Amino acid sequence: MANGVKSDGLRVLMVAPTSFFSDYGGHIRILEETLALQALGHQISIVTYYKGRDLPGLDIHRTWPLPWRADYEVGSSRHKLAFDLYLAGTVLSAGLKLRPHIVHGHMHEGALLGAVVARLLRVPLVFDYQGSLTAEMVDHNFLNPHSRFYRLAHWLERKIDHLPQAILTSSHRARQQLAGQFGVPEGRIHPLPDCVDMIRFDPTQFSPEAKLLLRRALGIPDGRPIVAYLGLLTNYQGVDHLLRAAARLKAQGENVHFLIMGYPSVEHYQQMAYDLGVADHVTLPGRIAYDEAPYYLSLGDIAISAKMSSTEGSGKLLNYMALGQPTIVYDSPVHREYLTEWGVYVPPGDEMALAQAVADLLHDPARGAALGAALRQRAGEEYSWQQAAVKISALYERLT
Questions:
Q1: N or C end of the chain, less CB within 10 A?
Q2: Are 269 and 284 in contact (CB under 8 A)?
Q3: For residue 70, is pLDDT > 60?
Q4: Is the pLDDT reported for residue 391 higher than 50?
């Protein structure tokens, strides 16, 4: 094949109900899984929406654009149903053409659409589970947990969870949820936490001169410690909490700068920083390409995440860990699974405690350095994509 995989590997049809590739979240998991599995000789074909960035070496099959909204971005709306109808046709077409040995569906929509093709072709289905569908809809305020529609969505989620022969979960917490809340047999559930490319996120590759150059290009004053965040810019990710914590720290006289990277809603949060009086202590450069993420993140003296979900994975933490950065997070089982005793934990939603945790690390750099070194070591020992690919490959072999 053009992507250079060996001819003796399995053919895998990967269903990604999103605009792959974009530089955040679950897209990183799909990309890194694919690259690592290709390195083991498997032939991976990704079926996804029509938007997204093509990457060299990947076999990507895209849907047609919506005829009435060719520029439409995917979101929680009625248009999502049209995207998935188009995706269903593309998955079926690709499946009949490629004749995969395995169908690998990401997220619940990918598992549902993948199940149809897997059953038609009589091949196993693997479900890459990123968190509860209904819990995520509630977290995003798209679903009322007391509504009739919630009960319907919960029923559908349970049905989807029982379709695959194997489920990969991004956390052990998710495994407990699938078995306890949705009744999935534990033998089908295989925890596979998000991982990180330790070479890509090696902090030693960036010289002090290169980092100073980037800092000045971003307009960050010399000598000011940086708190770094990279992810989606949404209230759900706690970006408003970060800005209010920055305002508290400035009011206390702390010499600190927040580098908040990602998208969308950059202008909204820039205005919020201005309204809070911290525009001179906050930089929002917008979308950062994944290839550039290590360079930009390397500026951070402290890394932070104010995400409040108790079920979804939080792969951004692994990038922080690999870069050897002390990491402040809202306390959750998923965050503790990644960071263990080396994380700095704050009660969810407590912005005052969030600001205090930053101040404490600013005044104790030796503690921060020790935490960062321990986190980088843990990332290398426990969260390597190469090790994860071997586990996925062994699962594929057992299923086929």
A1: C
A2: yes
A3: no
A4: yes
Please count the other Cβ atoms lying within 10 Å of the Cβ belonging to residue 208: 7
| Residue 13: φ, ψ to 5° | -95, 110
Whole-number Å distance between alpha carbons of 133 and 140: 11
Question: For residues 82 and 129, what is the distance between their CA atoms, to the nearest angstrom?
Answer: 23
Euclidean distance between CA atoms 284 and 370, whole angstroms: 28
Distance of CA 244 to the CA centre of its chain: 24
Count of alpha carbons within 13 Å of 66, Cβ hemisphere only? 17
Residue 16 — φ and ψ, nearest 5°?
-125, 95
Task: Report CA 299 to chain centroid distance, whole Å.
Answer: 21
Q: Distance (Å, rounded) from C-alpha 303 to C-alpha 298?
A: 10
* Rounded-to-integer distance, Cα 60 and Cα 21, Å: 10
pLDDT, residue 129, reads: 95
Question: What is the rounded CA–CA span in Å between residue 216 and residue 243?
Answer: 21
Q: Position 324: which residue type?
A: G
pLDDT, residue 132, reads 87
27's tokens: 């897209």
User: Which pLDDT belongs to residue 68?
Assistant: 60
**Nearest-CA neighbor of 299 among 278, 285, 313, 280?**
285
Task: For residue 399, give the 3-state DSSP assignment.
Answer: helix
Are the CB atoms for 376 and 266 separated by under 8 Å? no
CA distance 116 to 125: 10
The residue with tokens 């306390």 is: 331
Q: Determine contact, residues 191/172, Cβ cutoff 8 Å.
A: yes
Full DSSP string of 286-345: ----GGGHHHHHTT-SEEEE----SSS--THHHHHHHTT--EEEE--HHHHHHHGGGSEE
The half-sphere exposure of 216 on its side-chain side, counting CA atoms within 13 A, is 6
pLDDT tens digits for 294-341?
999 999 999 999 998 766 668 899 999 999 999 999 999 889 999 999
CB 194 within 8 A of CB 170: yes
Q: First vs last Cα of the chain: how many Å apart?
A: 22
The average confidence (pLDDT) of the chain is: 92
